[in-house]
Amino acid sequence: MTTNSGSEKKSAVNVREMIAEKKRKRNFSALTEKIIPILLLIIASISILTTVGIIYTLLSEAFEFFKRIPIWEFISGTVLKPLSQEPEFGLLPLLNGTIISSVIAMLVAGPIGIMSAVYLSEYASEKVRKTLKPLLEILAGIPTIVYGFFAFTFVTPVIRAVFPAVEATNILSPGLVMGVMIIPMIASLSEDAMTSVPNSMREGALALGATKLETTFKVVIPAALSGIISSFVLGISRAIGETMIVTIASGSSKNFTFDITQSMQTMTAYIVEVSGGEAPAGSTIYYSLYAVALTLFVFTLIMNLLARYVSRKFREEY
Amino acid sequence: MTTLTEDKHAYSGSTNNRVVYDTKDLNLWYGQTHALKDINLSIYEKEVTAIIGPSGCGKSTFIKTLNRMVELVPTVSTSGTITYNDKSILDKTFKVEDLRTQVGMVFQKPNPFPKSIYDNITYGPKIHGIRSKKVLDEIVERSLRGASIWDEVKDRLKENAYGLSGGQQQRLCIARCLAIEPEVILMDEPTSALDPKSTLRIEELVQELKKEYSIIIVTHNMQQAARISDKTAFFLNGEVVEYDKTDTIFTTPSDNRTEDYISGRFG
Amino acid sequence: MKYVDQTLVHKRMNSRVLKNNILKQVFLIATLFGLAVLAILIFRVVTQGIAWIDWNFLTGKLSTFPEKAGIMGAILGTSYLMLIVIPVTLIIGVGTAIYMELYAKKGKLQSFIATNISNLAGVPSIVYGLLGLTIFVRVMDFGNVVLAGGLTLSLLVLPIVIVAAQEAIRAVPGHLSEASYGMGATKWQTVKKIILPAALPGIITGAILAVSRAIGETAPLTVLGIPAFLLPFPEGIFDTFTALPMQIYYWTLDASLVDEYAYLAAATIIVLLVLLFILNAIAVIIRNKFQQRY
Ligand SMILES: Nc1ncnc2c1ncn2[C@@H]1O[C@H](COP(=O)(O)OP(=O)(O)OP(=O)(O)O)[C@@H](O)[C@H]1O
Ligand SMILES: [Mg+2]
After folding, report:
1. What CA–CA distances, in Å, run from A26 to B99, B128, C183?
2. In chain A, whose CA is at the least distance from the CA of B205?
3. Where is the ABC transporter domain (chain B) (predicted)?
4. Left (φ > 0), alpha (ψ -120 to 50) or beta: where does A70 sit?
5. Looking at residue C3, what is its pLDDT?
6. Which of the residue ranges A77-81, A114-118, B41-45, C220-224 would you say has the lowest mean pLDDT?
């Protein structure tokens, strides 16, 4: 033991005294301790300010718009002619484009996403899963502008080679590509929901002689249903808000049509077109941006709240 | 009104040592759980005080109350007083940082910082404003010697503390604690995660340290309490059943429950 | 009397097993479908664009002649944007995370902020563009300069950084901060010297992911009114600018007129994807290197 040599040296440096000395001098640190939480609260409230900013700008400018165009006329109008001599501002063409492109996207992403989730969570070995999942996630990391390029310069020409009636800009191609973009989101969220189904539930079914497939459809998917639904809702929200793919590949036709071989405009694409086109501040067309954006915001907000509500219910189940 | 000597919970033996800690009717609740009930204890300077008792009886809670670490749990509330060196430390105006500078703590699981051995030791002095490299160097050597680990690590001070064995890590944690020269060292089952050999080294170390520090140690190990402590307090369900010289507790306890516990009949 | 006819069960078992095996292959194909599209996409982009990437393309100015065009201006613009996004999101993101995890009392305010952050994460990026246009370009009157673009993108990716930092801070084991408090350290000292250093790898990984999201974002920039053809290079955060994704956007639109623009867009996409790949590789390396070992 060498403790004694330590205590001999003690006379040289008296730590206790040094600390006491420093403490007497430092009111500064007490002040820091008081200021830091306030500073952090201010920083944290920036996220609230962002929300307030979004809601305030959208509401106040949209309010200006509705002073000029009655809200009912906007919501129920089937004609959108913002630049004509006698402009009309009907939302339905845009709503229609948004809904149709989202439906196409979900028809791709829904089945493929959930089948991928089933494969990854129920069939794939750990090794296969560990390779496929990150690869799939690359899809989610590709910027949407790249998908837009792909839809416009590859998918559309391929579709047109098979079906010449399809127009050069159409809603089908961006809808499909958007679907591919959303696959990883649905696959990974649904897979999370499925893997969190306790193994005991699977074993119960398997022990009765059910095949893996039957177990998946009769036990796993029902148990994970709210997680799966929530992933779908988030996917829809993502599709509604997606901008670049449809802007590039679907053109800017404002026709109110259900023909997916034609060009249609979504709410997002309208915002890009109008804001990029030097809409003079104060004009009705300028304010229409905010009315459309407000609609978009409300739609996605409802979807996100719905997704959270559904998945929270799901967590209570086990 | 009973005087201290008549109170069977409060031991006031024949020692000449000064009282460092004195608790009066100390109660503590975690929300609704009443974890400490009317604790009256006097703890003496430069002695080893062992706290024993079955799991969940409030040992950790008690020593964490002595440096107010228990307040990290937000639901905690207390009543009664604790006097440390004649100052009432449960007062909200009392600065916990000052208290914890004077009362060091060693935890159940060795918990060095993910930094070098050197930086682990200098952490305390630095946060308390000591900057001089010369002084810090000296503190490092002295603390590591004090925790009798200097010879093992003196050539690898810049290496990460996680490279040390569990026993070495625990002695490093003791050294880290010594670096700011506290008066009291609280130890919560410091050897329960260690092998017998490392345990023995820590026990020897505690014997050395008590020459300069007052030590309060929680232990599940009866032999350990008997080997290294001067006084022993037996806790049960948040109460102090008996507090006396260690010899007395282990040879002629006055309470049946103490005897039962020590002879291994429950716990 | 038998309730179960074993031979019937056996017969049906065969077809059930067959069905299981067939669908297993279908599920596998579905999983590979996304990857196949990814492969085609990358193949297309590379074959169209790789021949166009040369020194002049990387360092040159825009030009009305496709074969002379270069993307240095866009590269600089994107770099300047990140010069704003990185510090702004780190300060606000980590500050918010520290507040939420270590200072805020569990209660209404804290859960309100948490709900708010997760809602912000779901707001379409184009809406952030309008926010930026209204607040930064018009009200604060910065104009459509790097600063306005950078701040808009910062707000957009902020939720990513906040959530990543919160997770990193939560993963720091409590016994480390206990040890610090036990030495008489104050809360801020503990946060600064123990918790943040231990959480740093996770925070940096999150920040890199946020940056790679911001680098590829196009929609908010289109709203800010970024010029399609801009010759001078930006020299600071108060200059107008273009960025890599904006260049891809404009060239893609032009591709319907002149084929060469599609190749320029593809070449720019390659540059963008390589950049993203490098960023993600760094994030993975950091994650693996600093694998927690407490
Ligand atoms: N953070 C907490 N929140 C609520 N109750 C707690 C908390 N910590 C401890 N308790 C309760 O307080 C009582 C005393 O716990 P304490 O940890 O002090 O016991 P202990 O004697 O140290 O036990 P052990 O020997 O297992 O370490 C127990 O009933 C325990 O459940
Ligand atoms: Mg304990």
Report:
1. 16, 10, 17
2. A1
3. 21-262
4. beta
5. 65
6. A77-81
- What one-letter code names the amino acid at A315? R
Q: In angstroms, rounded to a whole number, what is the distance separating the alpha carbons of residues A165 and A154?
A: 17
Mean pLDDT by 10 residues, chain A (318 residues): 43 74 72 91 94 94 93 90 85 95 97 96 92 90 96 95 91 96 95 90 86 89 92 96 94 88 93 81 89 96 92 64
Regarding predicted confidence, which is higher, C151 or A8? Answer: C151
Say yes or no to pLDDT of B247 above 50.
yes
Structural fold of domain A80-313: MetI-like fold (1.10.3720)
Domain chopping of chain A, boundaries: 2-68, 80-313
**Alpha carbon distance B115, C294 (integer Å):** 11
Q: Which residues of A touch B (CB under 8 A)?
A: 1-3, 5-7, 9-10, 12-13, 15-16, 18-19, 22-23, 25-26
Q: Give the dihedral sign, CA C209/C212/C213/C214.
A: positive
A94 alpha carbon, distance to own chain's centre: 20
- pLDDT > 60? residue C45: yes
The Cα C76–Cα B240 span in angstroms is 72
Contact C138, A73 (CB under 8 A): no
The answer for C 81-120 residues in CB contact with A (under 8 A) is 91-92, 95-96, 98-100, 103-104, 112-113, 116-120
Average pLDDT over residues C96-116: 91
B55 lines ligand 1 (CB under 6 A): yes
- DSSP states of C10-28: HHHHHHHHHHHHHHHHHHH
Give the residue-averaged pLDDT of B26-34.
Answer: 94
Interface predicted TM-score (ipTM) of this complex, two decimals: 0.92
Q: Which residues pair with B218 in a beta bridge?
A: B51, B188
> What are the tokens at A159?
């579709």
- Give Cα A24 to chain centroid, integer Å: 54
C-alpha dihedral sign at B24, B28, B32, B34: negative
User: Global pTM?
Assistant: 0.90
Residue B219 Cβ inside 6 Å of ligand 1? The answer reads no
Place of tokens 């309470």: B255
Which helix (H) or strand (E) element contains residue A203?
helix A199-207
- Cα separation, C163 vs C202, in Å, equals 11
Which conformational region is residue C141 in: left (phi greater than 0), alpha (psi within -120 to 50 degrees), or beta? left
Check CB contact under 8 Å for A143 and C245.
yes
The token pair at A22 is: 């420093």
| Whether C255 contacts A167, CB under 8 Å | no
Least confident stretch, A269-278, B57-66, C161-170:
A269-278
Q: CA-CA distance, C263 to C271, in Å (whole number)?
A: 12
Give residue A315's pLDDT.
60
pLDDT of residue C294: 52
Domains and CATH numbers, chain B: 19-262 (3.40.50.300)
In this predicted structure, what is the pLDDT of residue A2? 41
d(CA A147, CA A177): 7
Q: Which of C45, C37, C12 is nearest to C269 (CA)?
A: C45
**Contact check, Cβ <8 Å, C34/A116:** yes
Among residues B130, B90, B86, B66, which one has the least CA distance to residue A16?
B130
Point out the least confidently predicted range of A271-285, B66-80, C87-101, C129-143. A271-285
Looking from the CA of residue B31, the nearest atom of ligand 1 is 4
Report the DSSP beta bridge partners of residue B188: B218
Residues C78 and A145: their CA atoms lie apart, in Å, by 15
Q: What pLDDT shows up at residue A299?
A: 95
- Tell me if B177 and C183 make a contact (CB, 8 A cut-off): yes
> Long-range contacts for C277-282 (Cβ within 8 Å, ≥24 apart)?
C279/C208, C279/C211, C279/C212, C279/C215, C280/A141, C280/C208, C280/C209, C280/C212, C282/C208
